[in-house]
Amino acid sequence: MSPPYPVNPPLAEPKGINLINVIHLGPEIREGGVSQSFVCISCMHCVDAPCIRSCPTSAIYKDSETNITLVNRERCIGCRSCLWVCPFGAPSFGVEGKLLLCDICIDRIKEGKKTACEAACVARAIITATPEEIAEMKARKASKRIAQA
Ligand code: SF4
Ligand code: SF4
Ligand code: SF4
After folding, report:
1. Least packed by Cβ within 10 Å: which of 2, 14, 26, 49?
2. How far apart are alpha carbons 84 and 141 in whole angstroms?
3. Distance from first CA to last CA of the chain, Å, rounded?
């Protein structure tokens, strides 16, 4: 299948290290129209994070205040065990071969700001929220769907 459908211009392809992997699904014909979607995957800051258990040097740890998963890069030896166990393929490695992980812009979050990617996303596709806020959003969406049925 060839365009016309919206595609990224060639120069818009990300360069360097990606803390967010964007997976492109489609395009496909669905219900008579062309459909495609994009899934953003970065570190999910798992509550019981397997990467922390797998790290032989304890380079990965939780921020005691926010429970955000953080990396002490001085301790990282680049063994990539964390990549093998991460269910989301989130760990990235820079030129030094040391782990790089999305830290949910912890400094901005602590200042009460949105993450940089959330603030930059023109489609408002990225939302950073607590599990309680996400549950609330889901409940609101579900009741809207029921009301429209
Ligand atoms: S790197 Fe992977 S396993 Fe570790 S907290 Fe992030 S998503 Fe979870
Ligand atoms: S690559 Fe670094 S952070 Fe990941 S498991 Fe190995 S030492 Fe730990
Ligand atoms: S939350 Fe911050 S560190 Fe994580 S991907 Fe977005 S901009 Fe990068």
Report:
1. 2
2. 35
3. 34
Protein residue with its CA nearest to atom 2 in ligand 1: 86
Measured from the Cα of 43, ligand 3's closest atom is 4
Tokens matching residue 116: 């940089």
The string of DSSP codes covering 101-114 is ---TTHHHHHTTPP
Q: What is the pLDDT of residue 94?
A: 84
Boundaries of every domain in the chain? 105-149
**Ligand 3 first shell, C-beta below 6 A:** 19-20, 42, 102-105, 115-117
pTM value > 0.85: no
The CA 104 to ligand 2 mean position distance, Å, reads 19
